[in-house]
Amino acid sequence: MSTQTETLPPQNSALNEQEEKEAEHQRLAALGRQSLLAFWRDLAELMKDHYRQWAVYHGDERLGIGPRREELWWECERRGLKPDEFFIGYIEYQDPAFVEGFDQPLSAKPE
Hints:
Strand order of the largest sheet: 2-1-3
Order of helices and strands: HEEHEH
Distance between the termini: 74 Å
């Protein structure tokens, strides 16, 4: 007498996959925000020597500065970064009210 065992897929596989996608989305959103805030943090200093150039950030790390956005994009691709994993900003005056408003925690509500 032989017994057959049936292999069933995990019941929560779809849920786990969705949770993994959501976690990755949250990670990328946080990384993008961190990159943007690092750019704004450094902007005053960047404007002294690099006005009207481009700067690229990956999290808190500045990866490069250059006159052409495309070159910085290619450098990020060369490093294996995905578009959601870096921020390229143009070095020019930014409205302080906008920058300060963006610096609030994601859960904070405007007054």
